[in-house]
Amino acid sequence: MKKFQQLALIGSTASGKTALAIEYAKKHHANILSLDSLAIYKEINIVSAKPTKAEQKEVQHFGLDLIYPNKPFDVTTFIQLYQHAKEQSIKEHKGLIIVGGTSFYLKSLIEGISPMPKISEATQQQTNSILNKGLPKAHALLSNIDKVYMQNIATTDHYRLEKMLNLYLETGLSPTEYFKKNPTIPTINEPIPLYEIVVDRDILRERIRVRTQKMIEQGLIDEIFYLEKTYTKAPNCMKAIGIREVLDFFDGITTKEEMKEKIIINTTRLAKRQRTFNASQFSNKIALPLDELYGQLI
């Protein structure tokens, strides 16, 4: 049996990762592991830009359609997914390409995560009380405790703010202090080739505009209507870009055209944050435009 081969492909939203990953997987006899915080959900299809059913038939995908929108998950879910995808790929004598816009999960696979303390009910209630006063206030509180660590967490990142509040309130330690005392254990222990798709900002914005229009034509509004009716606005995934803007449209806060423009603007901002994260967290990578990566990988 040949040696197991794997690589990772990252890039901002709408950069062309899915198509490149599928072409690579078909040519090099590989499976795909999706690292995407929306595609993991069942019934969230259009807004997640999930690979089509036809594309999923061409190449085996892991990490898609695993849980319902009202069920929680965290980074440990993706670690388990990777372990399963690797084991299955080895059994099938296939390689594995890890692809997704949620690069935080890839970083966790490569660098590892620290074991987290058990959170008491009293701590969770205290955390909820702080979060209910607004995410910016929660971020400011944590920044006063650990300014350096909080620089990498957005003021809108409900999940990570909740996690860091729970950590601090349960242990009395700042995130930096806690993680220093509880070092990480990597899941991927061997060097992994890492490729990033680089896209000109004006081109990317136009691609985001085209994709947003396509999602609307495919039935984005109907999909979000079903999700709200079935699961309410409460689950964390209902705060994702592409969902919250449609919910604002339902509530009469915006017109349909304003909804579309807000999705484009917020997705463009997300792409900028993704580029910044990738630039700061992954130094050992090959970053090239899409056509040049096709030339190298395909």
Strand order of the largest sheet: 3-2-4-1-5-6
CATH architecture of the largest domain: 3-Layer(aba) Sandwich
Which outline best applies? globular
Largest sheet: 6 strands, parallel
3D architecture notes:
This protein has 298 residues and is an alpha/beta fold. Helix content is 54%, strand content 9%. It has three domains: 6-113 and 185-199 and 277-297, Rossmann fold; 121-181, Histone, subunit A, CATH 1.10.20; 201-274, Orthogonal Bundle (Helix Hairpins). It has 14 helices and six strands. Strands 3-2-4-1-5-6 form a six-stranded parallel sheet, with helices on both faces. Strand 2 (30-34), helix 2 and strand 3 form a beta-alpha-beta unit. Helix 5 crosses helix 8 (158-171). The longest helix is centred in the last third of the chain and has 26 residues, at 256-281. The two termini are 23 Å apart. The mean pLDDT is 95.
Topology (SSEs and partners):
Elements: E1 6-10, H1 17-28, E2 30-34, H2 53-58, E3 61-62, H3 75-91, E4 95-99, H4 103-111, H5 121-131, H6 135-145, H7 147-150, H8 158-171, H9 175-181, E5 194-198, H10 201-218, H11 220-231, H12 244-250, H13 256-281, E6 286-289, H14 290-297
Parallel strand pairs: 1-4, 1-5, 2-3, 2-4, 5-6
Helix pairs in contact: 5-8, 6-8, 10-13, 12-13
